[in-house]
């Protein structure tokens, strides 16, 4: 019976692995997580004549490598992003960069970006690799003041996993509209015996800009002298 060999583990890594003492088959007993630990060295012992005098044993190291599975969706560094830019920002200007990462490795952590919704006017573009968002068309505060764009990050696993974040781009008003009178010419008839102080007419101008850029003051340039 000297040929009966009994197998055992010198180190089971907290019962993560077990070995069948007869067949020598090593079995996984708990779930693995490559993101926590990606390799184990298990020391296997073989003993003959267990419990008897003159028993001999030897040990061998078993290296176990844990392969990555795509089990971590991309995570954006921030829950949402916002930026304010002047409405006259030049086409091509980079306004914001988003960044997402995945705890996996290799293709399972290679991230690409795209717009899901919110860019129907095609005013912006996103670099699919870098996550940089740039202006692709003239902006106009008087037409649209803010953009709510949903950005997706996808990893390259199979199947790929994705996450979305909200990017808010707000425009700042620039004084790019002159006041406009509601008439090109005002014609007024006034009686020659009108009393001093009587209202002659009222002129009215509008300005499409906001706040101080749209506040109008009136003055007479010339023509009020005889
Ligand atoms: Ca993984
Ligand atoms: Ca992943
Ligand atoms: Ca404008
Ligand atoms: Ca403006």
From TrEMBL:
Q: State the organism of origin.
A: Nothobranchius kadleci
Outline the extent of the Cadherin domain.
2-76, 77-181, 182-224
Instruction: List the GO cellular component terms.
Output: catenin complex
Instruction: Name the CDD domains on file.
Output: Cadherin_repeat
Q: List, in alphabetical order, the GO biological process terms annotated in this UniProt record.
A: anatomical structure morphogenesis; cell migration; homophilic cell adhesion via plasma membrane adhesion molecules; neuron projection development
Pfam families under this entry? Cadherin
Q: Which GO terms describe its molecular function?
A: beta-catenin binding; cadherin binding; calcium ion binding
From the Swiss-Prot or TrEMBL record, state where the protein is found. Membrane
Q: Gene3D superfamilies, alphabetically? A: Cadherins (2.60.40.60)
InterPro entries hit by this protein: Cadherin (IPR039808), Cadherin-like_dom (IPR002126), Cadherin-like_sf (IPR015919), Cadherin_CS (IPR020894)
What is the recorded name of this protein?
Cadherin domain-containing protein
Flavoprotein is among the record's keywords? no
Q: Which keywords does this Swiss-Prot/TrEMBL entry list?
A: Calcium, Disulfide bond, EGF-like domain, Membrane, Repeat, Signal, Transmembrane, Transmembrane helix
According to the lineage, what is the superkingdom? Eukaryota
């Amino acid at each position: 019976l000297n040929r009966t060999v009994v197998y055992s583990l010198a180190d089971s890594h907290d019962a993560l692995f077990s070995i069948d003492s007869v067949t020598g088959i090593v079995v996984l007993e708990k779930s693995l997580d490559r993101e926590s630990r990606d390799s184990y060295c298990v020391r296997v012992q073989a003993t003959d004549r267990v419990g008897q005098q003159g028993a001999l044993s030897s040990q061998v190291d078993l290296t176990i490598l844990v392969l990555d599975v795509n089990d971590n969706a991309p995570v954006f560094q921030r829950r949402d992003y916002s930026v304010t830019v002047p409405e006259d920002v030049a086409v091509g200007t980079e306004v914001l960069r988003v960044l997402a990462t995945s705890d996996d490795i290799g293709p399972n952590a290679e991230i690409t970006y795209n717009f899901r919704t919110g860019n129907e006017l095609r005013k912006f573009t996103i670099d699919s690799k870098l996550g940089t968002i740039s202006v692709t068309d003239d902006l106009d505060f008087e037409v649209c003041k803010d953009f709510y764009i949903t950005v997706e990050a996808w990893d390259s696993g199979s199947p790929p996993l994705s996450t979305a974040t909200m990017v808010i781009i707000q425009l700042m008003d620039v004084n790019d509209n002159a006041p406009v009178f509601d008439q090109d010419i005002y014609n007024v008839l006034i009686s020659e015996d009108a009393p001093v102080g009587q209202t002659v007419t009222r002129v009215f101008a509008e300005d499409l800009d906001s706040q101080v850029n749209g506040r109008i003051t009136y003055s007479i340039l010339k023509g009020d002298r005889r």
